[in-house]
From TrEMBL:
Residues 194-215 are annotated as: Disordered. This is SDR family oxidoreductase. Transmembrane segments: none annotated. The keyword Oxidoreductase applies.
């Protein structure tokens, strides 16, 4: 059974990826920051269907926590074949002029540093020139990276643009070592992240204005991520895939 690591796998898009991956035959290690009950629920659902899963609490901005996540996944399942760099946060809508240094640090720490640390650990674990068996990394970016998110969160948008660039550079670095690297840019997806940014109705409200006329679901994003992880995408690397309903 191939094993996959998913950061932020307890809720939203990460949770949907965990459930779909397990249904498609992957063993799943999810990371989460604080919501033990949500993480336990994902593991129990997967085990109830006969799958294999573990949940590892940790903060992706902490180097030791990221290393511990991969160590736990390897101890449970052996070689890692896929990593979904998904944990991410927004903050309440604001113009740049009104953003505090604390907010900027948090947004860049979690979305950029946390993602780079996770991708680094993935490179170390899967590269064939370091003893790994090869694999696939999917970075969860955002349509914000090309829209810029004015008056909402230009900090988050810039942080996600860093992940698009990482997909391009790291795919070239790791291609010869048997690791594909791609990014997915979700649009307006119906998850709790919008409530955490102070706009619980954001996806429903703005989703109506997209070409497909509705917000997307976490499951629809998970389908694209699982495809990129799988051998069906064996010649796809360095790609940035929009899952935005045309937005
Ligand atoms: P969500 O529902 O708010 O879930 C966030 C997940 O990340 C939770 O599992 C949370 O764990 C975890 N997390 C947050 N900070 C963490 C940290 N420092 N260390 C480890 N785990 C952490 O978010 P979502 O909507 O599914 O978003 C998932 C990804 O998709 C993010 O990168 C987001 O930027 C991106 N995205 C989302 C949308 C959208 O419309 N929903 C659009 C574009 C891109 P706890 O619950 O334990 O804190």
């Amino acid at each position: 059974m191939k094993a996959i690591v998913i950061t932020g796998g307890s809720r939203g898009i990460g949770r949907a990826v965990a459930l779909l991956a397990a249904a498609r035959g992957w063993a799943v290690a999810i990371n989460y920051r604080q919501d033990d009950a949500a993480a336990r629920d994902v593991v129990e659902r997967i085990e109830a269907e006969g799958g294999r899963a573990i949940a590892v609490r940790g903060d992706v901005t902490r180097e030791a926590d990221v290393a511990a996540l991969f160590a736990a996944a390897r101890a449970a399942f052996g070689d890692i074949a896929g990593v979904v760099v998904n944990a991410g946060v927004v903050a309440p809508s604001s113009t740049l002029a009104d953003m505090s240094i604390e907010r900027l640090r948090t947004i860049f720490d979690i979305n950029v540093l946390g993602s780079y640390l996770t991708a680094r650990e993935a490179a170390r674990a899967m590269s064939t020139d370091r003893g790994g068996a090869g694999g696939s990394i999917v970075l969860v970016s955002s349509a914000a990276a090309r829209l810029g998110s004015p008056n909402e969160y230009v900090d988050y948008a810039g942080a996600k643009a860093a992940l698009d660039t990482l997909a391009i550079g790291l795919s070239k670095e790791l291609g010869p070592a048997g690791v594909r690297v791609n990014a997915v840019r979700p649009g307006l997806i119906d998850t709790d992240i919008h409530a955490s940014g102070g706009q619980p109705d954001r996806a429903a409200r703005l989703g109506k204005g997209t070409p497909l006329g509705r917000p997307g679901s976490a499951e629809e994003v998970a389908e694209a991520i699982i495809w990129l992880l799988s051998d069906a995408a064996s010649y796809t690397t360095g790609a940035i895939v929009d899952v935005t309903g045309g937005r």
